[in-house]
Each structure stands twice: as C-alpha cells, then as structure tokens.
Amino acid sequence: MTENQERQRGAVAMRSAGRKQTWTSAGDTAGAGPLRATLSNGLRVLLEPRPEAARVALCVTYGVGFRSERPGQEGLAHLFEHLMFRGSESLPDGKFFEHVHRFGGAANGTTHQDYTDYYQVVPSAVLEPALFGEADRMRAPRFTPETLGGQLAGVEQEIRERTVDTPLGGFPWPLLPRVLYREPANAHDGFGDIERLRRVGLDDCAEFFDTHYAPGNAVLTLVGGFEPDRAMALIERHFGDIPARGLPARPVLDEPLDGEDRWLRYTGAGVPGTAVAVGHPLLGPDRDLDGYLAAMVLARVLGGRGPLSEPGGAGPGLSANAGCGFFGPLDARDPDAFIVVGSLPHGADPERFAGNVRSALEERAVTRLPAAEVTAHARGLGVRHLRTQADLSARSRSLGRFEQLFDDVSLLDETPRRLFELTPDRISGAAASLAGARQGVLAVGSWPGEEGRPAPLTHGAPSPADRGRGAYRSAGQLARSPEGPRPVPAADPQHPMPARATYDEVLPSGLRLLAVTDSRGAPAEIRLRLNLGAFALTAPHATTSLVRALVRGTGADRSLRELGGGLTVRVTEDGQWLEAAGYAPAEEPEAALGPFAALAVHLRTVLAEADGNADAEGGAGRGAAVFGQDLDRELWAAAADVRDPVPPGPRGGSLAVVAGWTGARVARAVHRLFPDGTQDSDGQPTAAVWHTGRLVRVRQQETDDVRILLCRPEPPGHEDEAARYLATALLGGYFRGRLGLAAGAQGLGVSELFTGRDLFVGAPRAWIRARVPGQQAGLLLKTVRAECARLGDEVPAEAEVAQAAEFCAGQLASVYDSPSALADALSRLGTRGWTAADTMAFPERLHAVAPEDVSPAAGRLFGAGPSSGVLLGRDAYLDSL
C-alpha cells in the first residue's frame, strides 16, 4: 500500500478495553471495509460488524503453510493443524468443541501453501467462549504422545483416502507441483510421507509452534453480529497477554517462468480413460494482480465449453476445465499456477492435449477477444466473488487470507472493480505470458510399463523420533499461565433474531412465494422447488433425463449466465422435488425470475418425455441409489394402499427469493411470469395416504449391515410445530439425541442413526433411519421402540429441553449467514407450509417450549415406535426380526 493510500485511511476513535483504542478502516476513502487494530504482541485484528447477522464468524489465519516447511518437515504443517484441535491448557482432551457443538455452531481448520486458518461460526451469544478457545490454544496448546499418535493415524487415513485409495489419487495435487516447480518449497508433497511423519516428535511440534504460531504471525478476523467496542475488549482480555515472539523468515519461493517442459506419467488403477493436468507457473496476485485476474478470465474462456472442449481440442469425448491456483484463485503468494485439466477417452494422446493447450493460449495471445465477451466473463467472476463474500465464514476467512498473504485487505473488495476494468489487450497479454512459460504435465492413465503413483517428494533428512523421550516441555504444554488453567467464560443470553421485511403468498397454481428483502448488496438468490410426486420413485433412472431435458429445453442456465449469474438444477436426494438454485445480479427481477418461470411451465411436458425414456437409461442414469431414496422406493413399491398422490407440478412447491427488491416488487414480477393454474376446489393440495402398519423386508445378500427405515404419518396442524421440532431433535436429531446415546451405551455399532420429518409423495411423516451390523438389528429395533415410548410417556428434564433448544436455535440462526443460506432455508421450509415470517421467528419460539409440551408432540410423531417401514439386509438377519 502506498503512503498516499495510508494517509487517506479514515481513523475512528473508539473506547475499548478500558483505554483509548484507535481504529482504522481498512477499506477505501469512503470508510468501507473492516476496522483494524494491532495488539502490543503483534496480533493483527480485523473487525467487520454486520447488524443483520445472528451469528459471528471468527477466523485466525497464521502465516504458515506447506511452503513454510523446512526439508525433512514435509507434511508437518498439515499434521500440526490437526493437533491444534486436540487440547490446550484450559481446554484439554477435545473440550475445544464444547461451545461449538452445544450451540449448533461449526469449527474447522485448513492448511494451504502459505497459510493455515482456523475458523468458527457460532451464535453471537457465544462470541466470548469462541475467542477464549482460540486464545487458549495460541497461548498454550497441549500435546501428548497419545494425541500425537492419534492424529498421525488420522492424517495417515486422510492421505490414503486422498491419494492411495482412489484411482486419481494425487491428481493434480500434490503431484503436479513436482513437475511444475523447481524450488523445493514449491515442489514438495504437502501431505508428506507417512513413514517420515511417524518420526515427528513432540519437540518437533514445540519448535514448529515457537517458530510459526506467534501472535505477530497471525490475523484475527471477526465478521457478523457483534458490537465492535465489546469485541475489542474481549480480544484484549483473552489475547492481550500472550507473549510476543520473533517472526519466521519467509521461505525462498522465486521461480523462473521459462525453461524446459517436464512430464510425469503414472498408472491409475480403475481410471476409465486418461486424465491430464497441464500447469504453468503464474505470477501471484502479490506480484501482478491485474495479470492474475486476466488469467482467471482466460481460464473461463478455455474451460467448460471453451475451445479445448470443441472438436479438435484433443479428439472426441474430451472435457476440459481451467483455473488459477491449486486450492482456488487468490489463495497463494507468488508463484501460483494456471492449471488446465482434461479428461480424455481411453487411447487419446495426452501430448496432443498439452500441445493444444499451448496452441489455444497462443491463439488468444494474437487474436483479441471481443470486448463484450471479456465483459461477460469478468462480470460472471465478479458476481460470483460478491456472492461468496456475502457469507460470514467465507468473508472472515478471505479477509484474514488477504491480510496475511498480500498485506492489503482492501484488495478483496477491489477485486470485482478490477475485473470489470480488464480489457481485451490485458487478456491477450496474460495468454502470451502463459504461452511462453514452461509446462509441467501430469498424466494418469493405463499404459504398459508405467509405474503406479510415485512416492511423495521430500527433501533432506527426517527428524529423529522423540515421541517416547519425554523431552516435551513440562507435562506436554508449550506454555503455562502463572495462574494455571483459566475458567471458561459463559455464553451471553441468546440475542433476538434480526428483523427482516418478508412477503408470503400462495399463488393460484399452489406455488408458495416467500420473499425476504436483503440489503447486503449481494446477488439475488432464487430457489424453485417443484413437486415430482411419485415420479422419482416409479421411474428413478429417468431423473437425469428430466434435468437435462428441462435445462436444454428452457435455456434457463444460459439465460442466467448471460446476466452474470448461475444455475444448478437437480432432483433432491429424497427423490421428491425438482430443485433449481440460482443467483443473478439484483437489477431487474423479471430478468432473474424468467428462467425459473420457464422451468415451471415446461416441467409436465418434460416429465412425460423422461418417463418414456426411463427404460432406455437403465441403472446408469443416477448411479448408486441414495440410502434414503432406495428404502423409500421399496416402501412405495410395497405399500399397496398408496392413493391420490399429489400430481407433479407447482402445488405444494415453493419459490424463495432473497434480494434487495421489496416483496411487492417480487410479487408483481412473479404474477407476470408464472402461470396461474388452479388448485383443488378446497384450496389445498391432496396428499398420499399409505398403510400404517406394514414392515417390509427386502432381501439384499451382499451386505453385512441391516438398513432400517421406520416411518409414521404426521398428524395435521402446525400449532405445536416448535414442540414437534424439539421432540425430533431430542429423540435423534442432534448430537445429544437419545437414540444415539442409548445405542452407544449398549455398544451397538450403528453407522447411521437419524430422526427427521419430511413429505413422502405429498404426505407429511416422521421417520427414523439407521444402519447397523446385521446381528445387532433386533436389539436396535427394541432400543428405538423403548426410547420412543419413554419420550412420549415421560416429561423430559428442563435442562435437556433447554440444551436441545440452544442447539436447534443456533443452527437455525445460520440462515442469516448469507443470502444463499436464507434462500435455501425458505425453499425447504416453504414446502412444509412455513411462511418467511415463520422462519424468521422460529428460533425464539423454540426457547419458549415447555418440557411438558414435548412429550405429547413426541407421542403424536413417533408413538411407541413407528411400525411402518423397510428392513433391508441378508435373509439370515431379516428372518430373525
């Protein structure tokens, strides 16, 4: 950042932590962007309050990644990320997650080339416990030989799953860097060699922590519903006394762009054709941001339906994709990578594909793209960027990443503008630079004489093993507070959900419209759910044809793409709904909603055509059946009493819109675009009625497990909806559900055990799904019936109900994390009859449920254990049930 830019930043004085705290806006001259502070120990703090949010996203981004590892340490950064979740001075033995799980939050960590981030998303009331957890492990992580051994086993399993136990393991990462780069820091295998990792000791961990996990090498970012003064006071309280330490030197990463091409071929068992990844060294955003953004546009030109996928690209049957970065764009310092991946038919020549990649780049270097095409591609990237940054977690992680990697967080919000300013000459310049750069090519196929996946690339000698030496700092802690473990702070009272302007209407066709006015400046999020009735159960292999024909016949995806948006159309996993999820710039609602209206108009015509093609598609249409839909299909086939299912179409479906438009404006556009149709004479859609006492046994001899679906019709009415919601959670809908606890206490080896509620061919039902070793199926069924009866007969304790309400309310608060999440929730709940206002108010309703209301609701939903359903497994197991 220039000195002039620094002077232009507006400083805002605020009172924080009992002293004068100077805040600086990290945005432009208008004051946009996060507030910035730096603690005396060097910890950088970025705060971006969002009053409309019900949760807070917290991220700590450390300046250490794969490329920070010294020779002999390959894989240590990733292993250390795992260890950081295993305990600290005040939160030993996995207690870090207690505040996360209890309140329906989420926490995770990721290791990248140049940074490692640890992030949480929790209700605003849990901000202080979340800050305390991050501060405690920054101050005094606690590692033991047992935790190190356990995490080594977990990392080994992850490495095997990602690289060894899959046909395309290691493609394109972490194998491509070894042929693309020369410098060991860039080229080595970020996972490391498991045999070497087994020699990592506790002293190695202590040294790694001391070197890289200093406060001055970290950025703490908060985005969401909080008050900045109070947040800064809490940060000072919990992070301020962590001692400062020296900062590590940055690794040597400079790479020449020119030189000879390099290849690596290996065989991959089970690869149906040939996979090729062509990499080019790319100047990172910290060296040339506009050139990097031009490469992102170029990737859109070459990938997808670009020239490499056309006849002559590399022969028939080719598909190609292109992108910047091994983990996505704008994710690493210089050097980064421009990568083109091709999927070639068996026998195709990978050298021809690599040559065509270079030819395509050379063509773009001399033949300038039309300005309108550049604008369209840049617009699509910019809109997608704005959409991503509307999410709390993504925003907090991006802010921390940009501050850590590029030392200028304002570039994050400048990215769309810089994209829109790109010219055809800039794109041609990026193509010329890449065309002249060397290629690193990775090819995976089945060639005689070629070896299997190569061993990890490492440098230097491994560390000596010391896990058993006991040389680790004072009882396995890297640092100690003079006063010892600190008390964990309590959560605040739950905050009320933010108010939003909503609009609800059931259209004449039976489609429910739910609109929420959202002022975040993100693209409009639109979700359409159309009822498929019994179609997906009677013709399961025709669903792929259905989606393809709808998209092809309406051009809906093309229409949204031309606006700069995007569209995904799919059949939901339960087979009951056609779901179209899209986004578009929030300019004119008619343009954004038009493609969805076309889908609704054409559904019945396309359904008839897809049904006729079901036999031709056979089992290849959808692949392996989803567990739940597989059992539902068996139930449908066996339940002879099913009658009057809701016909496919808009009845009972939903259209959810979250945008900057008013509800009235959305409604006007919807009434102009969507067909009217008619409902039944009573104004309510009919629903399926099915037998309530039939337990179907389906023989499947090739499995050692029994899969179970138990279900029961749900009585009508919504007046006790909050009590029903909590009853479902208490039984098995969250991590403290009674079924899971009872199964664990009896030593049952269940791999799946869930409770829930949905619509089955238009009829509401409550269900229990389970998967258990066959010899334990009988005991599990007895356990299920006993727990259902107990919850229906006995009033649960007030503390148990309160804990379930805390968890469920915290999870429901996630609908405010982004416009996308809110649109998803409105769409799903709208098909259950909820209004947008219901969704907004529901978390507070959960806290008002009395324990004595839960038992009657449980009885109405689950009785003494549902007696209808499907048991799927071997004869020997089923005959004993």
Report what the structure shows.
With 881 residues, the protein is an alpha+beta fold. The protein folds into 4 domains: 3-251, Cytochrome Bc1 Complex, Chain A, domain 1, CATH 3.30.830; 262-394 and 402-445, Cytochrome Bc1 Complex, Chain A, domain 1; 498-688, Cytochrome Bc1 Complex, Chain A, domain 1; 692-881, Cytochrome Bc1 Complex, Chain A, domain 1, CATH 3.30.830.10. Helix content is 40%, strand content 20%. The chain has 32 helices and 24 strands. The protein has an 8-stranded mixed sheet, with helices on both faces. Helix 20 (556-563) packs antiparallel against helix 21. The longest helix has 24 residues, at 589-612.
What key phrases describe this protein's structure?
alpha+beta, Cytochrome Bc1 Complex, Chain A, domain 1, eight-stranded mixed beta sheet, six-stranded mixed beta sheet, 20% strand
What's the helix count? 32
- From the spread of the alpha carbons, the general shape counts as globular
What is the CATH class of the largest domain? Answer: Alpha Beta
- Strand content bin: 15-25%
Low-confidence stretches: 1-21, 27-31, 467-475, 614-626, 679-686
| Assigned CATH architecture of the largest domain | 2-Layer Sandwich
User: Mean pLDDT score, rounded?
Assistant: 86
Please give the structural blueprint.
Blueprint: H1 3-8, E1 11-16, E2 19-25, E3 35-38, E4 44-49, E5 55-62, H2 76-83, H3 98-102, E6 106-111, E7 116-123, H4 127-139, H5 145-164, H6 176-180, H7 184-187, H8 194-197, H9 202-212, E8 218-224, H10 228-239, E9 262-267, E10 274-282, H11 289-302, E11 319-324, E12 336-344, H12 350-366, H13 371-389, H14 392-406, H15 410-420, H16 424-435, E13 440-445, H17 473-476, E14 502-506, E15 512-517, E16 524-531, H18 535-538, H19 543-554, H20 556-563, E17 566-571, E18 577-584, H21 589-612, H22 614-617, H23 627-638, E19 649-659, H24 663-673, E20 695-699, E21 705-713, H25 721-733, H26 738-745, E22 752-760, E23 763-773, H27 777-793, H28 798-812, H29 819-830, H30 836-847, H31 851-862, E24 868-873, H32 875-878
Parallel strand pairs: 4-8, 9-13, 15-19, 20-24
Antiparallel strand pairs: 1-2, 2-3, 3-4, 5-7, 5-8, 6-7, 10-12, 10-13, 11-12, 14-15, 16-18, 16-19, 17-18, 21-23, 21-24, 22-23
